[in-house]
């Protein structure tokens, strides 16, 4: 179940955070501030060093070696982003003095930066989720390869889904890695990596949940189930990255894939006699409650902690519980296989 919700939340977190038109960036005062900052290179007493370069990154009448360093481009601390940040902070101070509530700018709440971390709390919690998935995957690896019995001749595991869960673990760690990077440095490249990684994880989760719920063991049957889903997800990612980044269409795709898994895991948990089904139900309801944090969006407290950051925090214990269920499933299926061979 968490395969569904973790992936779906990543998609939703991306979608809800990237809508360009917001109240803040439509504000004439904010827009004028950014325009003047880009032109003049300063906001009051704050001097924006990156605005000493023209938009193409090279100083006027200078040679190629005067271009903005690559590490600065990577951090995306360029003129426009710096002006947007300082103008946003200045405008929010003015709004606060007038007794007005914070508003979103370019689809995001006004977060206070810490060094290069644009959303430090969300980035930290994403990193913790990455760590939890690594610990969960590593403990699963040790369990199936070193603690549980192996087949005498091939030395392969009795658990039929070992390889599938290894791939899931790697895709999960990749998705949370780019989530942490995206919350640290929000620009076009990190946006695409975060987005593509989340959709890839969600698509693979559809395949994995289908194979596990319907107990598909034959390799040919697995290919038959996986091929059309893999082709669709690949085409979808290519479409959004290289043709049109249609957020509305992508949300529909994520919802369909997410709820398909939700139904499969829910029905399976209801009819199976799996010894760890209570863990599965706990993850189900925990994820459902965590979803409310994405729905009930609120401004960041003290400029650091918002609903999305709290959601990232809530998934940390759920990740631990989910990998615990996976390990219990490995023990359960291994025991069943050994009993069948006796």
UniProtKB/TrEMBL annotation:
Top-rank taxon: Eukaryota
Keywords associated with the record: Golgi apparatus, GPI-anchor biosynthesis, Membrane, Signal, Transmembrane, Transmembrane helix
Primary site of residence: membrane
Localization, UniProt: Endomembrane system; Golgi apparatus membrane
Matches recorded under Pfam families: Per1
Bilayer topology: Multi-pass membrane protein
A single BP term in Gene Ontology: GPI anchor biosynthetic process
InterPro entries: Per1-like
GO cellular component: endoplasmic reticulum membrane; Golgi membrane
Any GO MF annotation of the entry: hydrolase activity, acting on ester bonds
Residue ranges of the TM segments: 123-146, 158-181, 193-211, 223-243, 249-271, 278-296, 308-326
Function description: Involved in the lipid remodeling steps of GPI-anchor maturation.
Similarity-based family: Belongs to the PGAP3 family.
Protein name: Post-GPI attachment to proteins factor 3
Natural source organism: Dioscorea zingiberensis
Taxon lineage: Eukaryota, Viridiplantae, Streptophyta, Embryophyta, Tracheophyta
């Amino acid at each position: 179940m968490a395969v569904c919700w973790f992936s779906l939340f990543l998609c939703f977190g991306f979608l809800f955070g990237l809508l360009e038109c917001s109240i803040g960036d439509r504000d004439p005062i904010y827009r004028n501030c950014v325009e003047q900052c880009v032109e003049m290179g300063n906001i009051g007493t704050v001097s924006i060093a990156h605005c000493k370069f023209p938009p193409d990154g090279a100083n006027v009448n200078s040679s190629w070696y005067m271009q903005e360093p690559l590490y600065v481009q990577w951090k995306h601390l360029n003129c426009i982003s710096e002006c947007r940040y300082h103008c946003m902070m200045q405008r929010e101070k003015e709004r606060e003095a007038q007794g007005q509530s914070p508003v979103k700018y370019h689809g995001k709440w006004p977060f206070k930066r810490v060094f290069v971390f644009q959303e430090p709390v969300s980035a930290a919690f994403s990193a913790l989720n990455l760590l939890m998935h690594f610990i969960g995957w590593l403990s699963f690896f040790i369990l199936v390869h070193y603690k549980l019995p192996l087949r005498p001749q091939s030395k392969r595991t009795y658990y039929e889904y070992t390889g599938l869960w290894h791939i899931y673990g790697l895709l999960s760690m990749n998705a949370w890695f780019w989530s942490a990077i995206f919350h640290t440095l929000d620009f076009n490249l990190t946006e695409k990596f975060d987005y593509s990684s989340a959709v890839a994880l969600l698509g693979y989760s559809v395949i994995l949940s289908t194979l596990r719920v319907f107990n598909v063991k034959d390799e040919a049957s697995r290919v038959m189930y996986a091929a059309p889903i893999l082709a669709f997800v690949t085409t979808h990612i290519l479409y959004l990255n290289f043709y049109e980044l249609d957020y509305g269409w992508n949300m529909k795709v994520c919802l369909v894939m997410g709820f398909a898994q939700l139904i499969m895991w829910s029905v399976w948990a209801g009819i199976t006699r799996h010894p760890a089904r209570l863990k599965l139900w706990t993850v189900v309801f925990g994820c459902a409650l965590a979803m409310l944090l994405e729905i009930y969006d609120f401004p960041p407290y003290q400029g650091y902690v918002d609903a999305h950051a709290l959601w990232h925090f809530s998934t940390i214990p759920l990740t631990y519980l989910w990998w615990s269920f996976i390990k219990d499933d490995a023990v359960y299926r291994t025991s069943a296989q050994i009993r069948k061979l006796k």
